[in-house]
Amino acid sequence: MTRGRIPIKTDFAKTDLVHLKVDPYGGAPSSQATPISNYFKRGNVLQGLPYNVTHYGAAGDDTTDDTGAIQAAIDAVSAAGGGTVFLPPGTYKTTATLGIKSGVTIKGAGKHGTIVKKYGAADAGEPCIAVSGTTAVSWWKVIDIRLEFDTAQTATGGCGIQVSSLNLMSAYAQIRNVQIASSFNGIHSSGVAGTAFFMSRLENVQVYGAYDWAFLIESTLNTTLHLDTCYAVGPGSAIATAKGFKFVSCPTLTMTNCACDWLAKGQALFITSCNATIIGFQQEECDYTDDTASNTMFWFVDSEVTMLNTRMYKSEVDCVGQDAYLFRVTDNARLHIENLSQNLLTETAGTYYSINCATDSEVTVDNWLDTDPAGDTNDASPYRIKRINGNIRQFTLGTKKWSYGTAAPVAGDWVRGDVFINTAPSATGYIGWSCVTAGTPGTWKGFGVIQA
User: Rounded to two decimals, what is the model's pTM?
Assistant: First the structure.
C-alpha cells in the first residue's frame, strides 16, 4: 500500500527485524537488529511501559498456579532497575508469597478487575505479598488490585501485605486503591527488633474480614506514615476477634477520613509511643461484646494524639461483668479531642467510661456532642481531664497548677505554690488553699478568709 509517494509496509512477519535501543529486561544497549518475535516471547516491552505478567506465562484463570510467572516478572523489573509489573483483569492463583523489591510497582486493572488469590491452609501464616531484600526495600508500590485468601487466615503471618520483616527496613512505599479480604492482618509491619517502615503512604486501602488487626504497624521504627481513606470492615459477630488500627513507635502519624465498620472485638484504634493527628475518623455499627479487660474502643498509650471531627454512630457496648471504655489514656499520654459526635445505641457493662484517664496522663475536650447515656469520666482532683466543652477543670499559671474542689486535696502529686479554689465557700471559710510543702498530697493552708 502507498500513500502519496511513500510506500508503507503493512504485512509484517514474525521474522521481520526491528531496532530497539534499550532492552528493558537488563540487556546492554544495542542497535543490532533482533527478531521482533524474540521480544514478545520473552515478555519484553518498550522502556517505561509495564511488564505484562501474561508474557511470562500467567493465565489469570483462578486455576493455573501463576506464582512463578508473576515472580519472574517482578524479578525482571527489579533486574532492569525498576518499573511496573502489570496484571491484566483476571484472578491469579498463587501458592506462595510474592516478594516485592525496590523500585517495583505491582499494578492491577482495578480492585474489581484484578484479583490475586493466595491458596493455602488457614494456619499457613504466609503473606500474599511481602517486601523482599537484604537490608532495605524502598520506592515500591502496590496499586489498583484486590488481594484475597482462598481460605480465611487464622494464624499470624497470613497478611495481605507484609511491609517489613526481620532486619529489613522498608521506606518510600505506596499502597493505593487496594482491597484485602480474609487475611489475618490486612497490612502488617513486623514488631520484631530491627524492623522499620517509614516515609510511606496508604491511600484508599480497604481490609475486609481480617481475623485480627486490619492494620497492624508495630515495627521498632515507623516515621512519617500517612493513611488516607483507609477502612477496617468486619463481618460483625462472624469474626469476634476483628479489630481496626494499631500503631507502635511512629513519631509522625497522620490519618485522614479513615473508618471502622462492623467490628466485634472492641478496639477501633490502639496507638502507643506515637505522635498522631487523626482527622475525620468514623466508627459505625461496631458491636463490642468482648468480656475481657480490653474493652476499649480508643486506647492511647505514651502518645501525643489530636483527634478532629470524629464520628461514632450506631455502635453497641455489651460487656457484661466487665468495665468498658470509649477513650482510655494511659502511660503519660496526652489526648486532645475536638468536634466529636457520639451516638451509641446501647451500653451494658460493669461500668462504662466515656473517658478513662490515668493519673500520669491528660485529656482536653472541645465540642463533644454526646447523645448516648453519659459514661463515668473516672476523674477526680487533681483532674486529668483538663477541659471539657469549655469547662476548665485545671490549668497551669506559670509553672503552678490551679484547680478546684470543696476541700483541700487529699490525693495527687502537688508542688509548692499550687492553688485549689473552694467551690463551696461559706462565711468564715476560705476562698481556697495553697500548697506550702510539696508532696502527695503535700501540705495545704487556707487563704482569703471570708467575712462572717
Answer: 0.83
